[in-house]
Structure formats: structure tokens, C-alpha cells
Specification:
about 150 residues, Rossmann fold, globular, alpha/beta
Length: about 150
């Protein structure tokens, strides 16, 4: 079995996101793998921009919410020592964008947080569940504790 070479951490800035990020960093260290991070915006309105769904992290915008999200991603990327070229912020449906970047960048492990939902929440699905079922690479769902 070949060791992981490229790990993609999907972040949502939840309270327990630091725990998931540390797990991903530990795996990257253990396997001497490249670590990348992705954050998909699906909860703030998309301002009128000329750059589509991929958000350039090296350009300022006049949208305060967007700049706040970019600052969070940049801070996390700095804490994890993730190269700027391996940080992505996009607008869209999280499961689709995560899988798209994973395939585009030849990721062999996606790390996501999961609440392990049951009942109706399970039927409605979650990002972690969707990524698990549709990704072409391995997916590690880090169990989060409900607060």
C-alpha cells in the first residue's frame, strides 16, 4: 500500500474545526504528505465579481463578509504551514467543490469533520457523507462531539 502523498482538509470554521485541522496536520506529518485546505462558501451571498466561483486569496475585495472568510482561511493556512498555492476558497455546493478540487489536484485523502447524524438529519445528508460516497479517493471523517 502506498502512503498518502496529498491530503486535502475541508474546513468549515466550526468550533471543533481546530481538532479536525490538527488531525489532518498530524497525518500529513506522519506520511510526509502535502497538506492542502479548502473552504467552500455556501452561506454568504456571492458579490458581483469578475473571478467566478474560485476566490483569489491574494486580491482584496470590498465585501466585508468575504474578507472575513478569507482572513480565517489565511490564518488557518499559516498555522498549518500550508503553502498559499494549496489553499482554496470557492463558492458553491461543498460536496461538489471539495470533490472537484480533490480530483483536480490529485488528492489521495480528504479529511472532513462529521457529526455522525442520525434519523432525519442522516436522510437529508451532510457534506461529510456526500464526500464519502462520491470521492474517488480515501475520505477520513473525524467524529465531532455535539455541543
Amino acid at each position: 500500500m502506498k502512503d498518502y502523498q496529498h491530503i486535502l482538509l475541508a474546513v468549515d470554521y466550526s468550533e471543533q474545526g481546530v481538532y479536525v485541522a490538527e488531525k489532518a496536520r498530524s497525518l500529513a506529518y506522519r506520511y510526509q504528505a502535502k497538506l492542502s485546505i479548502i473552504h467552500v462558501l455556501d452561506n454568504i451571498p456571492m458579490p458581483d465579481t469578475n473571478y467566478g466561483t474560485v476566490i483569489p486569496l491574494d486580491q482584496d475585495s470590498s465585501d466585508e463578509l468575504l474578507e472575513a472568510e478569507k482572513a480565517k482561511l489565511m490564518q488557518l493556512g499559516d498555522q498549518l504551514n500550508v503553502d498559499l498555492a494549496n489553499r482554496w476558497m470557492l463558492w458553491g455546493v461543498p460536496k461538489q467543490e471539495i470533490i472537484h478540487i480533490a480530483e483536480q489536484e490529485q488528492v489521495d485523502l480528504i479529511v472532513v469533520g462529521s457529526h455522525g447524524r442520525h434519523g432525519l438529519a442522516l436522510l437529508l445528508g451532510s457534506t461529510a457523507n456526500s464526500v464519502l460516497h462520491y470521492a474517488k479517493c480515501d475520505v477520513m471523517a473525524i467524529r465531532l462531539q455535539d455541543a
